[in-house]
Write a structure and sequence with these properties.
This protein is α+β, with helices and mostly antiparallel strands and 284 residues long. The protein has six helices and nine strands, in the order βαβββαβααβββαβα.
Length: 284
Amino acid sequence: MCRRQEKDNAGTSPAQGGAIKCPYDPDYKGKDMFLPILGPVEGIYAEPELRHIRMLYAEKVTMVYKWVGYLLDHIRALGLAEDTLVTLLSDHGEPMGNGEHGHGIMRKCRPWPYEELAHAPLIMRGPGLPAGNRVSAFTQSCDVAPTLTDWLGIGVHREHQGRSLLPLARGEVGKVRDFAIAGYHRFSASIITDDWSFVHWTKPEPISSTWRSSQALKTLANIPEGEEMWTCTPSSVAEVPERDELYDRKADPCQLNNVAGKDPGRAAEFYAELRAFMAGLRTI
């Protein structure tokens, strides 16, 4: 996650090759966690270690914040600020432990489209876009390409599955879609609305893994026989819950209390809507 050096007893300075503590957890004295082990956290990490991992992540976010600012300063210095659209986004979030931090896993090692993995930042800065706006409307990664082609004057191609976000960013509309879709091919699909999130789990037959050419790599990645999945992430396991899940996003934003059993009618409605949407994608 970030480079971390231990301070020696002599108290040497960073300039002398000494210590640099994580600024968000400077008193941590446990095991170094610069590259956390992927997988379930139970029995592996103590709570102070989990907190330290999250603080290292916060440090990395701060580093990105600093260097994005450096990039923007140079764009302005070159006189390009009024001709440049800057779009900053992440491909995914990051599970980091128990409860609201990650449903019991560390990093993206399960095909679970929960909030901590599926909710990713999208920041835009450009001429004609109001500064400082925070928009709560749903967007998806497939919206980035049509947004950029729209801004370049090329327009949105009919084969784009996404939608241009420029009207949303300019404040011309309040939303560009009624819900968002997240999932992991062949294992999960989720539909997210303002008030609810529904997750449908599938259990396909075992499929090829990127480790298939090397049994040693499969063993190293701890992938059990019959649970292979296409992945480039060691310790990834094709493990999904037994039943579909429904969450009240207002009362339970971290998706910890599955209410599908208490509200089966609503869960069935979301399942039908999700199926219809996914079937529509096959016709594009």
